[in-house]
Amino acid sequence: MNKSVSSLWGVQKMEIVSKFNWDTFGHFRHFYLRGFSFGDRMIKGPCQIWIFVSFNTLFATGSLIFFLSAMLFGYMYLFPTYSPVINSYGISESIVSNGTCNVLNGSWIQDESYPLYDASRCPFAEHGFNCLANGRKDKGYAKWRWKPKNCDIQRFNVRAILEKLRGKRVVFVGDSLSRTQWESLICMLMTGVEDKRDVYEVNGQKITKQIRFLSVRFSSFNLNIDFYRSVFLVQPGPVPRHAPKRVKTTLRLDKMDSISKEWIDSDVLIFNSGHWWTRTKLFEMGWYFQVGNSLKLGMPLTTAFGKALDTWASWVETMVNSNRTSVFFRTFESAHWSGKNRNSCKVPKLPSSRSHGRDRSPISDVIIKVVKKMTVPVTVLHVTPMDAYRRDAHVGTWSDNPSVPDCSHWCLPGVPDTWNEILLLHLLSKNGVPLQ
Fold it and tell me: Positions of the region Disordered (predicted)?
């Protein structure tokens, strides 16, 4: 055989062989190489080289297809009823379509049809969260949609939701992040109301941080959406006798907040807590934990939070009618403070490509652990992983007080709208309402 042709065939042969993953098909390597050697022996001259190159390529490809087909049929024979394992964090089977889709497992994708509303046209969106009205120039942060890995959250029909919520009472309980979600839901639903005057705060209150109770009524639908400010969920108490001077207030881990009785008569209850369970907002302000008559000065924060949630869980199990009320608990919302003392707030234009460890939180872990032990159904909205990538969506310096940066709260419209899309998906799926 001509040396140059023989050399060319040798190179081509090695390229074909190298394309296979021998880690997977190692047992068949000898078989393939014998096939190639057979082709070499058959070649008698340069006039036949291209025929036999094709022969060897076809031989290798056909063998691989035969092997993969055999493996597939063997797998189907041995595992005919395979179904994937999903960590659904309390998601009901009704919204995990066909057992294959966890709506909380996904990624953010750009969508020019977003945002879902204009905060400047919604009187219930706090001015401090309306980043565009406060001078933010880039609008890209509001054009990201959450896309579950194996399904999709379709654009909801606002009128269908309002009809389904007709005559209901939806209650949010928690800190300012709960208030943000409450505002977001009201703004989302207002896009389906023709006469905006039919939507009003029942006491004529303005949306502020200090008010403990706010209620917005959609009068045309006999629907109330309420917010109760209860940052710890459990009850603050007086300082016990003989307590150290550094103790200014106690947090009664074994007693629910005194306003909890007002949450019971509801159709949907959404809780959150976590951002106030820090040293700066507790110990440095003179707040310490108490159980019964005992002051717990050395109790770690996560342990105390767990005890508070045990109290909450017991309250839900004994006081809430689970046949009427759907209960949700949203996990910790990722903050994106940076710097040595966690006091620097840099807000980029785009979501992060990595979570940088913010997809996990001890607070969220406690919530999931407590809910798993409960005897009544509670759905965990585990938003911690999805929020971890949205550093771009924080208020930053675009609040009503730009001198104080904010890498905890979110712009509206923005990330809290996604929390509500998932909340509504649960409610609609539970009640059999089509999403569009």
Answer: 340-360
Whether residue 166 contacts residue 218, with contact meaning beta carbons closer than 8 Å, is answered with no
Query: What tokens does 368 get?
Result: 């999931």
Residue 365 in tokens: 């872990």
pLDDT tens by residue, 352-394: 999 999 999 999 999 999 999 999 999 999 999 999 999 999 9
> Which range has highest mean pLDDT (42-51, 134-143, 421-430)?
134-143
Tokens 């009809």 found at: 163
Collapsing DSSP to helix, strand or coil, 372 comes out as helix
Which residues, 6+ apart, have CB-to-CB distance to 293 below 8 Å?
240
**Look-up of token digits 């579950």:** 148
Task: Supply 418's token pair.
Answer: 């996604």
Q: What is the pLDDT of residues 24-80, one digit of tens each?
A: 444 444 444 444 454 444 444 444 444 444 445 555 556 666 656 555 544 443 433
Q: Tell me the HSE value of 41 on the side-chain side, using a 13 A CA sphere.
A: 6
Assigned token pair, 37: 């050697």
Check the CA dihedral 347-350-354-357 and report its sign.
positive
Global pTM reads 0.77
- Residues 35 and 120: their CA atoms lie apart, in Å, by 72
Q: Which of 232, 246, 332, 235 is nearest to 276 (CA)?
A: 232
Helix, strand, coil percentages (3-state) for the chain, rounded to 5, are 40, 15, 45
Please give the Cα distance from 307 to 320 (Å, whole number): 19
- Alpha-carbon span 250 to 247, nearest angstrom: 7
Q: Residue 9 is encoded by which pair of tokens?
A: 């065939």
Return the residue matching tokens 């585990």: 382
Cβ atoms 221, 260 nearer than 8 A: no
- What is the H or E stretch that residue 147 is in? strand 144-148
335: exposed, middle or buried (C-beta count within 10 Å: 0-12, 13-18, 19+)?
buried
DSSP 3-state assignment of 7? Answer: helix
* The token pair that represents 395 in the structure block: 């208020």
Report how far apart, in Å, the C-alpha atoms of 373 and of each of 170, 310, 369, 370 are.
25, 10, 7, 5
Q: Which residues contact 24 (CB under 8 A, 6 or more apart)?
A: none
CA-angle at 330, arms to 205 and 127, nearest 5°: 35
